[in-house]
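Case study B.
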Amino acid sequence: MSLDERTNKTKLPVSSIRRTLSTLTLILIGGLLLHGSVHLHARITARKPYSPFTVYSEIKIPGVSFNADNTLVIITDSNCHYSRDSILFHQSLVRQAVQLGIASMLVSPPKRTPKELLSVAFTKHVEIDLTTIKAPGTPSVALVSRSARIVGLWVGQLGKSEQTALLTRLDGDMHTIHSGDRLTGVFPTSMVSHQLGGSLLVDLRARAQFQAQHHPRAINIPLDELQLLMPLYATPGASITLDCSVIESGMCSAAIGMLKDVSYVNVKALDRGASSASCFKGAIR
Amino acid sequence: MAAGIQGLLVAEIEFDRRGRVLRSTMLATPDEKLARAAEVCLARWQLQPSGSEDRSEVRKGKVFFWFSLAAGVPHVFLVNDLKQRDALVAAGGRL
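Model:
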């Protein structure tokens, strides 16, 4: 066998091995991609059960009825560090609720209530698997109306400004919103109507946005027209509620300031809460 | 207004450097006929020409008209004019 013949003989298996290796590599990459997408799909579907717990939806806790005008619901878990770091805030929140005569409820997984909260005067304490109530994460604070509708939802460990917003929300004073929790659904007609009373609900968005969707009781005064047109709608002593659930917090604060500048002092804002870092896996599951 | 229509008309109007109306857009109106009438009226508006040091080529703003019928007598208030607006409010012209 000549050298050339031997070389040719040995070349064939090498190219064949290369082809096989390329095919195997492709199969391996394909497999990894497939595995990744399956894993991602599993993660997405795993989070689906939490979605119904949103603002304006009905809160359902087995064996619990919401008879008070407003109930402050704190969902916590001693296994979650965000919950543990929020204990002082939750204590002050409940103290504020007690002072204002607002009912408060502590919800936690069985035997996972932070011990610092056990001595706090909650109206009710429920130990329940948090997946059954579709809790959005821990800690969570929900303001629930008499019809068991969530009218404000704060998920996760809150920053100072968010804490202040929530504390002031309890007594119905001015409060701010955060953009983390956007409105996507249709306004339920019963939503917050009992809270509005005789207050004039003002939507500050542009006319086209307002026409696309708005609260049935809202009137539309775009922000840049507010100071000029408000006297056509209400006297300075009138109760005005700004629908800040559909705009950014900066716009809301600006609008409140503008109205105060022209002597409207009885101004409130309707917000939806905030979203922040919270425990999902491990703590709830 | 002879048809008994009243309410707020909002128009956006743009002027060029010479103060002439470039275009007007109706943003809100209680009635289409009123909107057309307002458009014709606004086309005649004229501003002072902007100064040579004024950088802006176009000046743009919103105009608010309140049309009302009081005891069968039609009134038009230019709400941008605070005196007219306050007169309207004093006359009970609330929405």
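The domain at 7-90 of chain B is CATH 3.30.2420 (TolA/TonB C-terminal domain). The remaining cases will be described in the next quarterly update.
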